[in-house]
Amino acid sequence: MNALITWLDSRTGFKDLMHEALYERVPGGARWRYVWGSTLVFTFTLQVITGFMLWSAYSPSTRTAWESVFYIQNVMAFGYLVRGIHHFAAQAMVVLMAIHLVQVVIDGAYKAPREMNFWLGLVLLQIVLGLSLTGYLLPWDQKGYYATKVTTNIMSATPVVGAEVQTMAQGGTEYGHLTLTRFFAMHAGILPAMLVGFLALHIYVFRRHGLTVHDVNHAPETNFWPDQVLKDAIACLAVLAVVMLLALFKGAELSAPADAATKFDAARPEWYFLFLFKFLHFEAVNRLGITFGAIIVPGIIMGIIAMMPLTYKFLGNLGHRLNTTFIWLLGAAIVVLTAMAIIEDNNDPKFQADVAESHRDGQRARELALGPDRIPVEGAISLMRNDPFTQGPRLFFQHCKACHRYNGHDGRGSLVTEIVKELVEGKEVETTVLTKPTAVDLNGFGKREWMRSVVVDYPAHFSWLKNSGWYKQAAAAEAAGTEVTYLDPDNSEMADWSGSRDSLMSAENADNLTALVEFLFAEADHGFQPEDPKTRGDFTDVDVSLLDKGRAVATEGAWAGDLNGTSCIDCHSTIGQDFVVAADDEGDGYPTMAKYASEAWLRDFIRNPGAARHYGEKNEMPAYRVEKLSDQDLDLLIRWMTGNHLPSEVPDYGSQLNAFEVVAPQGAADATE
Amino acid sequence: MSDTSSQSIPAPEQPTDPPGAGRRNVLVEILTAFLSFIIVAVPSTIGGIFFLDPLVRGRKPKGDGGETGGLTGFIKLPVTADSIPADGTPVAVSVRTDQDDAWNHYKDVPVGSVWLRKTPVGKIIVFNSVCPHLGCSVDYRRSENDFFCPCHTSCFTLDGEKTNDIPPRGMDELEIATATDGQPNENGVELWVKFQNFRSTTSEKIAI
User: Residue A523 in contact with residue A517, Cβ under 8 Å?
Assistant: First the structure.
């Protein structure tokens, strides 16, 4: 063994190298304050290890980047951990770098003869920030895509060559495959190679000049090994522990696959750039332009930091005091701006709703990609674009929320509000008030509760209509003695029938009512959404044993008591039949109940609600012709409303109905009596 | 790094123990070495397991012939039994099915090809067209009336037996079933094959 070591040493001289590396003098003893540089080297090592591993599974193109990261994260052995470590170690690196810089400045380690090393460190800082920036885009998810778009647009604000810089970084004028291949080459090749080179120089120059000793008399002089190495190792272990805990329990998020056509308002830079984000949003900064805020100011700050050795050289101790004051002020400003950005976001309901939607989409994308059809060759983006659960709420928001609500919200979880201007004591005051819906809340459309509510409490079920302008006008005209044809939830034949509540709700009709509701529910034939999506099969939860009875009630009037002999079919002559598009002169004058609320019925109704077979001349709903709502969008909307899609474990948007307590329909309460 | 600058002291032969060290120093050295090992070993192990993913993660069994009767794992061929020449001339048919590739799922893509042949007694036999030697595609050679691989001149009889010593084994015969409307039926004309690939260069037939 000894002979082998001697031989190896005589051929390589490794013993000298080890001595050089390990027995560096540490005057004043080992100190915790010297560990920061080592933790940075360690974090970089972590990034190299996990980065190479991720590289072995990552595929940079717009149709495979998200997909491969999804695969790493959700399928591959320890993938979430490898990605999690890489994600959080990257953030740790930025934090440690900031601490290292502050430490260097307050200890005066930038002073002669170490100016060169200080500048090398600043170069390293730029490289690490470049790595963060390029890495953020690589998963090609909504979050990284839109955040990086902002950065590349800032690049275009560079004086003179802005547009060229941006085009070069993106690999073209738009984001695409080449953006990813270029960012990946930067992230995994060029920048790490530069980092290794500059790090070697940085350490070499550091060793040349030795430690900047804080206090020579702190303790007896020692060597780097083992006393300082022990402290360094413990510090690195602490960094590793924090990173591992975050990776295990928080995990790196993967939001929905990037889609240039889907608005994403939850975009924020990584948290350590939030201060810059906040800074750019100040009105004063905004007015001076993006070039000033995002390029000139950071440039000046970096310039001042780079000048620190000269400041000291020319101003002596005053210069050092100026430098330390500057670095503390800068640090404080960053902390304050970051806190401001976070607090503002937390108090912004719009942003919070956007973030919630972003999480919802991210979870849904994962669910679809893990679903039975996995990911088609067109990429995960097509899964999202063709998913009713994802697109339905957006289409509802776009087309329906002007009149309808969904569980009290606008389809995407938020209340619909408007700003009202009032004159208070001669001053114009703006207040945000709830916009009243003017049509029925469509949550639970076609479900049992809905059918029951229509049958037993028609006036209450449709009472939302009374908020509308057309209703108020018509009611006023009627009160003034004019004859008007309009839908009045309180005064209609259905309301009259539904008005026989005593008989309808009597014990002798309880079974009949249940059977009728089950029959109507079965006719609508909505997809079964089990509590646990994994139990999904080709079945519904319709109670088939009730259907004959329900049909008899609907078509033969098989009620008990007063209602006996009255049946739905007396007016709705097509109930129980298949839905067919009846010509306007063939109708019975009542809305068709043939497969009411089913996909076929909805498709025809939304396109043409004013047809005689639907609401006829009483209709107030605009027709959604193909110019307004494409066939594909209509299909997605209907499939969302009828639950015809891959079931989801993603929780639905919470109810906002309590905001409407004043105008809430009575039927819902009655139905549960 | 071995460059000695004016500032660095000459490297001592033995570590210079600071005063008051000794046994304590050895313990510190062991502890330091141990911790240093841990902080590198943990990420390396995690990364290593990740890299071994193809080996450590259980593979999903193939089975896309659906749950139809006894045909699980079988793939329907685009030819019928009555279209195979009665004179024993082999027919090449490409096999299409759904295929998984990491995160992607491809619907109805070609996954390989087979040689179909009617034996003199009217039984249909089927071979994977991949040569068991080194994975080239085996051709039917009309002049010699045999199977022949152009890469390294492997030769097989029409029954799949090897006729020279280049291939390690005969051609890989596959299970085949006849069916009617997806249900196994001896007299049916639908042809369903249990398509598999096998490891090359081994004398044994090992499915992969």
Answer: no
Domain that holds residue B139: 75-194
Whether B85 maps to a domain, the answer reads yes
Q: How far apart are CA A251 and CA A73, in angstroms?
A: 9
Answer whether residue A337 is part of any domain: no
Same domain, B102 and B188: yes
What is the interface pTM, i.e. ipTM, of the complex? 0.86
Final residue of a structural domain among A264, A283, A312 = A264
Are B89 and B150 in the same domain? Answer: yes
Considering the domain architecture, whether residues B51 and B98 belong to the same structural domain is answered as no
Residues B40 and B87 in one domain: no
B50/A240 CB distance under 8 A: no
B positions 28-57 inside 8 Å of A (CB): 28-29, 31-33, 35-36, 38-40, 42-44, 46-47, 49-53, 56-57
Mention every residue, 6+ apart, whose C-beta is less than 8 A from residue A370.
A74
Within a domain: residue A202?
yes
* Exposed e or buried b per residue across B5-38, where buried means at least 16 C-beta atoms within 10 angstroms of its C-beta: eeebeebeeebeeeeebeeebeebbeebeebbee
Mean pLDDT score of chain A: 90
- Mean pLDDT, rounded, for A41-53: 97
**Does B30 lie in the same domain as B127?**
no
User: Measuring CA to CA, which residue among B73, B84, B69 is closest to residue B114?
Assistant: B84
For A81, which of B46, B100, B106 is closest by C-beta distance? B46
Contact B47 A50 (CB under 8 A): yes
pLDDT digits (tens, 9 = 90+) for A516-567: 999 999 998 887 665 555 554 445 678 888 989 999 999 888 888 888 888 8
Asked if B7 and A71 come within 8 Å (Cβ–Cβ), the reply is: no
Local structure of residue A441 (DSSP, 8 states):
-
Please report the sign of the dihedral spanned by the C-alpha atoms of residue A124, residue A130, residue A133, residue A137: negative
For A9, other C-beta atoms within 10 Å of its C-beta total 14
CATH of the domain at A183: 1.20.810.10
**Which of A50, A71, A223 lies at the smallest CB-CB distance from B43?**
A50
DSSP state of A436: P
Instruction: State which of A152-166, A175-189, B77-91, B107-121 shows the largest mean pLDDT.
Output: A175-189
Q: What is the pTM for the complete model shown?
A: 0.87
Q: What is the DSSP letter of B58?
A: P
Residues of chain A found within 8 Å of residue B100, distances taken between Cβ atoms: 374
Boundary (domain end) residue, out of A264, A279, A304: A264
A76/B36 CB distance under 8 A: no
**pLDDT greater at residue A135 or residue A501:** A135
Residue B5 falls within a domain, yes or no? no
CB-CB under 8 Å, B100 with A50: no
Same domain, B81 and B184: yes
CA distance A410 to A622: 18
Eight-state DSSP code of residue A428? E
Residue that wins the pLDDT comparison between A363 and A670 = A363
Same domain for B28 and B96?
Answer: no
What's the mean pLDDT in B78-89? 90
Domain count, chain A: 2
| CA neighbours closer than 13 Å in the CB half-sphere of residue A500 | 16
Give yes or no for a contact between A670 and A454, defined as CB atoms under 8 angstroms apart: no
Interchain proximity B52–A209, CB inside 8 Å: no
Domain-located, residue B9: no
A176: domain range? 26-264
**Which H helix or E strand runs over A424?**
strand A417-424
Q: Considering the domain boundaries, does residue B205 fall inside one?
A: no
Same domain, B120 and B179: yes
Total domains in the fold of chain B:
2
